[in-house]
Amino acid sequence: MRKEIYITDYNCVTPLGFDVESNWKALLEGQSGVTLHQVSDNLEAFFVSKIDSEKLEIEFKKLFNSAQNGNFTRLEKMFLLSLKSLVEKHPISDETAFILSTTKGNISLLKNKKDLPESVYLSNLAQKLADFFGFKTKPIVVSNACVSGVMAISVAKNMIQAGKYKDAFVIAGDEISEFVISGFNSFQAIGSEPCKPYDKNRNGINLGEAAAATYITSTPSENEKFKFKVLGDSAINDANHISGPSRTGDGLFASIQNAMTEAKVSAEQIDFISAHGTATLYNDEMEAIAFNRMELQNVPLNSIKGYYGHCLGASGLLESIISMESALHNTLIPSKNFEEMGISQDLNIIKENQPAEIKYILKTASGFGGCNAAIVLEKA
Questions:
Q1: Which of 221, 333, 349, 362 has the fewest beta carbons closer than 10 A?
Q2: CATH classification number, 231-379, choose in 3.40.718.10, 3.40.47.10, 3.40.190.10, 3.40.1030.10
Q3: Where are the alpha helices (DSSP H) in the chain?
C-alpha cells in the first residue's frame, strides 16, 4: 500500500499581501493586484500584477537580521520570505527534499551583463536558497513552463512515495522582467486591459509575480491546523506546438483523466476546479473542451488570474494554495472580470463569493511546449 501524502502548511508572497491570511482577506473583498505599472523605462505602462519593491524590502528587513540581508536579488527575497515561516515550524532532516519551481529565475541579472552571473543558473539559485535554510539534500529544480508549480507538488508526492525522502518543502516563484515581457509581446498575448478568463471580450493575459511555498509530508503531526491529501497527479505533453495549445485538449484531458483515476475520484465527486484560465483565446477554449470531455462542465470553476495575473512558475502552486483556502473556509471565489461566456462549450464559472462544501479539488495547469498537468486534492 502506497503512503498517503499530505500538504499541511503553506505560505505566499504576492501583490495582495505577504502571507496567506492577508491574501485571502483581499480575495474575499474582490481586490486585485492587476493595475497599470511602468515596469521599465523602455516600456509604456501596462496592466500587470507587481509586488511593491519598497514593501518587500521593509518586510524582508523586518524578518531577517542585517547579516542575512546581504547579497540577495529581489526574487530571492520573495522566495526567502515565503519559506521562512514554514521552516521555522517543520524540522529539516537528512531526508527532507527541497524543490524549486520557476520558469525564468534570476533572468533579470542578464541585463547589460557580458558574463553570466552564477545565480542565473537555476541549479545555483536553488542551492543558494537551500543553503540559507540549511537543507542537507541536493535541491531539485522543476522548470517546465507554466505547469511547473503543479508539477513540483507531483514531484514531491512521487519522491516521498518512492521512499527517496520523508518530507519536502516546495517553493515556487517568478518576477516580471523585460525578458518575459518581450517574449509574450512577440506573439501579441498581453492584454490591453485587466484580463477576463473565459469571457467573450477577453484579449490576453496580464503578467504577474509571486512566490509561494508549501510543506508536504507522509507523516503529519497531530497538531497540524489542516491536512490535504495529494490523491492523484499526472502531466502529459500534447506535442502540439511550441506556444499553441492543442485544439482538442488532448494533453489536459489525459492529465485530468490520469490524476482522477489514481485518486479514485469520479467527475461527480469533484467539488471545485481551480483552472489555468489565462484569458487567451486558445487556452481558454482548449480548457473548456478538455473539461467537457471529462464531464466536468457542471463543477464550479474559477481562474484567479484576474487577481494575480499570470505568475508563471509560481502560478500553479499559488493557485493550489488559494484553492485549499477556499476549502478550509467553505467559500468559492469568483473568476474575476468574467461576465459573458466566450468559449464554445459551457462551464460553471463562479461569478460571486458563495458558500460551498469542498472536499475534492481538481487543480490544472497548461503551458508552452504542449505541457499540461493536473492534481487532485482531498480535504482530510
A1: 221
A2: 3.40.47.10
A3: 20-28, 53-63, 74-89, 122-133, 148-161, 178-186, 250-263, 281-293, 305-308, 315-329
- 6-217: what fold? Peroxisomal Thiolase; Chain A, domain 1 (3.40.47)
Q: Which residues partner with 234 through β-bridges?
A: 374
List the beta bridge partners of residue 12.
212
pLDDT of residue 67: 58
What gap in Å lies between CA 315 and CA 75, rounded to an integer?
15
Buried b / exposed e along 275-305 (16+ C-beta atoms within 10 A) = bbbbbbeebbbbbbbbbbbbebeebbbbbbb
Distance of alpha carbon 95 from alpha carbon 135, whole angstroms: 9
pTM tops 0.85: yes
